[in-house]
Specification:
Length: 423
RNA sequence: GUGGACGUAGCUCAGCUGGUAGAGCCCCGGAUUGUGAUUCCGGCCGUCGUGGGUUCGAGCCCCAUCGUCCACCCCA
């Protein structure tokens, strides 16, 4: 035997036992998207590295140290997408979707970031992603958030809390950044090494620090919400009203800043205390400047991304149930002629009764062994086929959840099974 | 990227101060003829993550490496 090829760090296989959770999440989110008029878009996993650098920001952690980028055979720099927004904006521009149009879009798929893996944090991870283009008012901000609240409800998820904030316009944020830098410079010696490093580059990130020694210092720092431009303040106030009338509870977290440079005005994050340090399950915000930054016509835009692994972990943590796939009918058969006839019979039942789930035992072994498998499969009914049955042209039908075993002619079998299952 | 814990059969784990591997579950077969519980009997399954080193001898010690998990970091 040759040696095993090991899987890559942070790359997971979703095995059949896990797949139903993924299907549940995907079908619920698709369902909700469709009831809100969001349409699916699918974009490539691979883009020019330049796209992400320009969109997310040259000096963000994602671009600086987490992106899987490499040169192709022609020497151009490509990257596996670390998030979906940049690609969707690029696709919208490439395909002329933003010319006097409005679009509500969603996509579902894998993203890639070369971080050190932990529970709820992987190198290939999946996101459900929503984006709305062409809507400048706070109503769409509210709609996007209401939509996520509905998803939680339908998925049976509790223990998530909504935090919101406004970053204001780029100009207002630049003024605030200067103010903040000035404040922290005055207390330079109290900053930890990370924060000292961030002071010049991105002082807003200091507000996010979990370092308890700096908590007081941070609490006393000037608040962005006090230094917003008037329009952003009005936008934010209106959003809060809309959330209240929509029945979605929130807390304003003035220190909520995002690690991607393109956000402006509304930012929000759904957090949980059930997953350890990976506490963000869904987050997003407005990015009114990004489209022009990527060369398109000025278009207001907003979106969010949901971490699928985290949501699934959360569902499991909270004891949510997901239906397991099990056959309705299990065909037990022994003997060469019975095997051939059984296969044929299963086909004809599937044709006559579409939707009926029929699993055949092709594993051989004694009737006893096959019945054990039939039981374990969760099937409601076993169809038994041996040489006797084949000779008589009828199958033995045994209810596995109590009831008498009967014999049914091959011709009447499909209808008989449908009747048994539906009761 | 930094610090730490861990890595033994498909799964959950045991393995004393180094003497060349064990349990339960699972799976397979049997307890008289073709029928799923339980019980009983029997059986299969391991390059002890990988590669080096120390030693007469290593799952147990040392080094490296890969992976998982936790915290930081970052973020979905």
């Amino acid at each position: 035997m040759s040696e095993h090829i090991e899987p890559l760090r942070g790359m997971n296989d979703v095995l059949p036992d896990e797949a139903p959770w993924w299907n549940r999440l995907e079908s619920v989110t698709r369902e909700v998207f469709s009831t809100y008029g969001y349409r699916e878009i699918r974009v490539p996993l691979l883009e020019r590295t330049q796209l992400f650098k320009r969109a997310i920001g040259e000096h963000t952690d994602i671009v600086e140290k987490e992106m899987f980028s490499f040169e192709d055979r022609d020497g151009q720099s490509l990257a596996l997408r670390p998030e979906a927004t940049a690609s969707i904006v690029r696709a919208a521009i490439s395909n002329g979707l933003l010319h006097n149009q409005k679009h509500r879009l969603f996509t579902i798929g894998p993203m890639f970031r070369g971080e050190r893996p932990q529970k709820g944090r992987y190198r290939q991870f999946y996101q459900v992603d929503a984006e709305a283009f062409g809507y400048s008012g706070p109503e769409v901000d509210a709609e996007l958030i209401l939509m996520t609240a509905r998803m939680w409800q339908l998925l049976g998820i509790s223990r998530v809390r909504l935090e919101i904030n406004s970053l204001g316009t780029a100009e207002a944020r630049a003024r605030y950044r200067d103010l903040l830098r000035e404040y922290f410079r005055g207390h330079y010696s109290q900053l930890d090494a990370d924060s000292q490093r961030r002071l010049e580059g991105n002082p807003l990130r200091i507000l996010d620090s979990k370092n308890a020694d700096m908590a007081q210092l941070i609490a006393a720092a000037p608040l962005l919400t006090d230094h917003l431009d008037d329009e952003s303040t009005a936008h934010f106030e209106r959003l809060k009203k809309l959330l209240e009338s929509g029945g979605v509870a929130y807390t304003v977290n003035p220190r909520l800043v995002r690690g991607l440079d393109y956000y402006s005005r509304t930012v929000f994050e759904w957090v949980t205390d059930a997953l350890g340090s990976q506490n963000a399950v869904c987050s997003g915000g407005r990015y009114d400047g990004l489209v022009t930054q990527l060369g398109g016509e000025a278009t207001p835009a907003i979106g969010w991304a949901m971490g699928m692994e985290r949501v699934i972990l959360l569902m499991q943590e909270l004891g949510c149930q997901v239906p397991v796939e099990q056959p309705d009918v299990y065909v037990v058969m022994a003997g060469e002629s019975a095997l051939a006839r059984g296969l044929q019979l299963a086909e004809s039942i599937r044709t006559a009764a579409p939707g009926l789930k029929i699993e055949t035992d092709l594993g051989g072994g004694s009737f006893k062994a096959q019945f054990k498998r039939a039981d374990k499969s969760g099937a409601h009914v076993a169809v038994v086929l041996g040489d006797d049955e084949v000779a008589r042209g009828e199958a033995s039908v045994k209810p596995l959840r109590g009831g008498e075993q009967t014999t049914v002619s091959f011709d009447a079998l499909a209808a008989h099974l449908v009747a048994m299952i539906s009761k």
